[in-house]
Design a protein that fits this description.
This protein has twelve helices and ten strands. With 423 residues, it is α+β, with helices and mostly antiparallel strands. The chain has three domains: 4-127, Butyryl-Coa Dehydrogenase, subunit A, domain 1; 147-256, Butyryl-CoA Dehydrogenase, subunit A, domain 2 (Beta Barrel); 264-420, Butyryl-CoA Dehydrogenase, subunit A, domain 3 (Up-down Bundle). It starts with a strand and ends with a helix. The protein binds flavin-adenine dinucleotide (FAD).
Amino acid sequence: MSITICYDAGSAGQCAKGTDLVDMDFSPADLAFRDEVRRFLADSLPDRLRDGARRSPGVFVDPDIGLEWHRILNQKGWLAYFWPVEDGGTGWTPTQKFIFEKECALAGAPSLSIMGLRLVGPVICAFGTPEQKQRFLPGILNAEDFWCQGYSEPGSGSDLASLKTSARREGGEYVINGSKIWTTQAHHANWIFALVRTDSSGKKQQGISFVLVPMDQPGIEVSPIVSMSGDHEVNQVFFTDARTPVDNRIGEEGQGWTIAKFLLENERGGSCFAPRLLRNIDELTALAEQQPSGLNGALGGYQATREKIARLRIEAEALEVTELRILAELAKGRTPGPQTSLTKLLGANLGQRVDELRLELLGYDALQLPLERPLYGNEAPEPIGSDAAQVAMGRYLNNRASTIFGGSNEVQKNIIAKSVLGL
Ligand SMILES: Cc1cc2nc3c(=O)[nH]c(=O)nc-3n(C[C@H](O)[C@H](O)[C@H](O)COP(=O)(O)OP(=O)(O)OC[C@H]3O[C@@H](n4cnc5c(N)ncnc54)[C@H](O)[C@@H]3O)c2cc1C
């Protein structure tokens, strides 16, 4: 692979003299790393997990599938590759991280639960005390702890800083009251990291603190929210005099908003969208070759179908180049900043278009929505038609959420308008 990107290209698409050239060639060392990752995936990724990932209609991978892969990666030492080396990271370059994610996507590996690894883990690495790191990081790595994210509240989603869940100090503890909503996999979690209001006297961004709260206590109730596909992935969490030690606060009291923004940047831009999109587009291509057109041959033989798939592929490849460009920035020690809003917006929209085209290709076969779970393994219901048809509608319905969670499309556009376009 050889891509050369030039910033500030002239209107004719030529690199203007003196502009910043980024050489995106993979070095021989990167190519050797890619081969090592490929060998590892061929040897260590069980077909059962690959099948489970392919046949999961949810937004988030089921814990039984994701955690098994999590443990395999941890044993290899390749799990927390975006953490600092001293806290358990791999020390990989941004390019190596990209290669790893791309190869995992191409191999059909399950995605991992992000709550511990990608969200609270990096926060603890960056803002935690040595004692907090020692207390919480091993539990994330060895999967003894399962985390959920307590940010959104009824009435405080996009306008997160308006959150009202309160934490009152009582001796060495915080006493927490209020409610969090859309809390992904809270019904599996034994810990929640939460933004709470420790002071309501100043501006809304002030007086917020970031606390870690054990879920297994009488003051916490988890109430399921079942999505329109019939999946139970999200919840409302109620806090009624729930307690956590003051020592479980990350950072200073009132520093929560700074930490919240750090975490959101990781959530939006922590990983690359393009590799999984490109794999899904490969699957669409294969599907089109199999689906009868009803007239003459398969749908894949028709120019209209090929054009639709090609358009998606071109846009996904363009996104991949943008993601590579962000990696080049990171390699120079710069932060991705608002560019993560750009990739989140493009990635989520493209993902939904892939889901729509899958339904279009499957036609009548996609009109099924089994409510049994899981759709993989020995207990799975028999598919009507193909496996792909069995999960297509569930994936489509669940993935409608991707342009809402982690900051909605409109919110990402506002950030881009302000920070990138200067409007
Ligand atoms: C499947 C799923 C999983 C989630 N998981 C979690 C989780 O684990 N933890 C967690 O804390 N949260 C989670 N969320 C919540 C998610 O972050 C919020 O839904 C999201 O931030 C939007 O907030 P809201 O739902 O309150 O919508 P609102 O903020 O009320 O927005 C409603 C509509 O108004 C638009 N809008 C709002 N403000 C503006 C503006 N300033 N300019 C233009 N348009 C605007 C929005 O784009 C949206 O279309 C999840 C959500 C979903 C759907």
